[in-house]
Amino acid sequence: MRGEGRIQIALDGMGGDFAPEEVVRGAVEAARQEGVGIILVGPEDRLRAELAACDVSDLPIRFHHTDQFILDGESAAAGLRTKPRASVALCARLVKEGQADAAVSMGHTGACMIAAHWAFGPLPGVRRPMAGGVFSPLAPQTVVLDLGANADCRPEQFLQFAAVGVAYARCLLEIADPTVGLLSNGTEPGKGTTQTRAAYKLLDRSGFNFVGYVEGWDLASGRVNVVLCDGFVGNILLKYSEGLGSALAQWLARRLEGHLPGPQIEDLVGSLRAMMEVAEQAGGGPLLGVDGVMIVGHGRSRAPAVARAIAQARQAVESDLIEGLRTELARVAGTISNEG
Length: 340
Prior knowledge:
By secondary structure, this protein is an alpha/beta fold.
């Protein structure tokens, strides 16, 4: 549904560490810059109070009330069962019902995954949704997944990750024959855990353009187009990268003090921090493998990152990402069924 020609985004007003303040500010920024309609989902009185502090004249922002939302640290599955009108669940449902074109949440990754899975269902051939995308601006044609949605993985799930990663690289990065690598602690085939060694064997005979193991430093080198890891490793990798960026930025500011003017130091430090903050760069990433657009952002996202997540949702809708994924998954369906 694109009311008055606008793409409609259902935004979880209560998702993230700084909700609803930063989420509402990000919604205002995106509505102004991206030309999308925003449906703010959450307690209407709280959302209206935050919106009152912003200049929203003529902006297409409306509310969908619920007083239920998933708390930080709450069990995603149990929370969604006891709170059927949780804000993240309603965002996904609005997309399913055709009232919105995409959903965006900075909240609980697990809750986003379950809500999207329940509302949209999986794309054909996909067993469980996954999170991933371009990991670093240093390697803009390298996709990493999973980044947190699947902590415990069976070896055959890496075939799913590969299929979706290849589809993502073909559809959004326009790479004709993406290379695929499996993240490990060395490049020799005998390296890795029991899980990764078993996954290596499956990928090696899968028909993908599989180059074998890659290591941590390959994430920034652009050596391969699709890097595979389980969500436990991926989420640690994501947060380590962001923490390292913050620490390096502080170190650089101290070292440059007295050598450069303050504004130049702030510019350099800000650039370094932004480069390492994966979530700040993209705003979030699509939950891949479900039959609808759900963008999941970092819990620590401030307003600019929320706005970028909404922009990414708009891009996913405009580029028809779901149909592109469906097409690429169909192309590799035989590989998955043979090995799964």
